[in-house]
Amino acid sequence: MRLFIGIMTKKEEKQATEINSFKAYHDNKYKKKGNRMSYFPFFKEIEGEKCLVIGGGKVAARKISRLKGFGVKIKVVAPSIVSDIEAVAQSCDNISIERRTFTQEDIEKADFVIAAAGEEVDKEAARLCKERSIPVNVVDNQELCDFIFPSIIRKGDMVVGFVTGGKSPYVAAKVRRDCEMNISDNIEDILDYLAKIRKLAKDRISDERKRAAYIRDVSEFCMKADRVCTEQEEAAILEGYIDDKCDDKKKTVLPGAALVGAGCGSYELITIKGLNEIRRAEVIVYDDLIDEHLLEFAPESCELIYAGKRSGRHSKAQEEINELLVAKALEGKYIVRLKGGDPYVFGRGGEEALALKAHGIPVHEVPGVTSGIGLCGMAGIPVTHRGASRGFHVITGHTADNLPPEIEEIRWKSYAKLDETFVFLMGLKSIDMITEKLMRYGKLSDTPVAVIHGENTDGTYLKLVGTLSDIAAKVKEVDFPSPAIIVVGEVASLELTD
User: Kindly report the CA angle at 335 between 333 and 336, in degrees rounded to 5?
Assistant: First the structure.
């Protein structure tokens, strides 16, 4: 038996059981408080055990589907069998079907029983099981159950179970879904790695307390960094435990950093991976153009640092932000740099990544929905559309490149010749220059243009439509708000939203 206190992992190849709530095998061992039954959760190894399923309907099919991956031998006995059970039996060697009414002999050969054949048959099956101390699950009849099926998360050797004592399977499933979002897709690799670390610790560290501390440190690192250690990181942690004289010289191992794109507009537009990074962050350095609802998902102990930058009012210079990220990472904390849109689309994420890597800090990027695409979509403008645009270009509206005039001329001539969509970011202050140069070098003055401003918190937007010849005047006339994107091309005249 394996005691289950929230999450159980298993090193052996055998799989853990989905059945986590065996209470007692006899009626006189039920513990009741009023109308409540107390279920103590634990996991039991069932690989190779025999399960009798009485009933061949949809409910039985669901139970079989959940058990089939745990190595149990399943026998289904019922006069009629639904196609779902037949299909799974054909694909699994450990499932057999017998089209008949169950007998007492069937029960006596079973290690546990699932009764899903109807009220009368299920009651008789439960009675026979209890006489023989054989655990039984009777669907939709909690009082007759010796065990119940939890709502489970399974990733490799890790199995997590959720039960509500039979009161609300929906709630159990909802909690399971919420919890599953916090479990990394890398957990299988991490668990396999930590199994090797336990063996390494046993071979290299004789002191039991130091061995436990080493395993804990490596485990904490892997969970923070969401990956296994490199050879160098593993050696750095081990060094402090194999030499009794260097405990106080133990090297600091860096958990690393993530550059996370928050998307554009509502917090709901962040990716699941991005949200998971926020949930495990120890420090979050965030920008102005994010929905601050995202910060509510951070751990309570997480340090939140504002580093917003808007035209004319920077909280911190980019060099300061780079230094801040490095300093916090060198403290051994896991850093999330939370940026609006996508970190690598005019977000200066590349500069931040290089600064971190220059100090040996592991860093990775989590893409986000860039406003150059997402905000256009919100406003009903596709950046590509058959018959209107076969491609699109995302261009900075800033004019700080200090290029020679002849190079600047070549650039704008090339833009004007392309019959595709142009999306200018951060270009509202330069809209006169942008429109004038596109027309000067060949773009027709009646080319459609849309200017779009998005709100971060509720996903709403403002859109102003015109042409190259008049859009700049319209922007000034209505005092159009910043920040905004400028869309140039035939697609700007489309309106695909209500």
Answer: 155
